[in-house]
Amino acid sequence: MYFGRVVGSVWATIKSPQMVGQRMLVVQPLTPELKNTGKPLICTDAIGAGAGELVYWVRGKEASFPFLPMEPPIDTAVIGIVDEVHVKRTVNEDVPAAPAAAPVPPPASRKNSRKNGPC
Length: 119
Hints:
elongated
């Protein structure tokens, strides 16, 4: 399952017969800290989510399970509305990252390198 925020909806007048009556939403994937990640995607709505709501969604064959016994041709579906998120942070985000390590020096030349002739 993944977090997302509903940012829009999709209207399609011509679609697969199994999709008739199914709502499709535009969902922006989110990290557990609720920051945008990845590109927005289209999810079939299994629960009646609205614009701006924080939801969780699934992908793959499992996305069609809420619509059984019908099996619509979908690969993502919104399956829940999130009320609260509690994330325990293990690293303080206010602390700057450690400085980058010094570059690794090139290896010392070998006696039997091709530059020095055959081995």
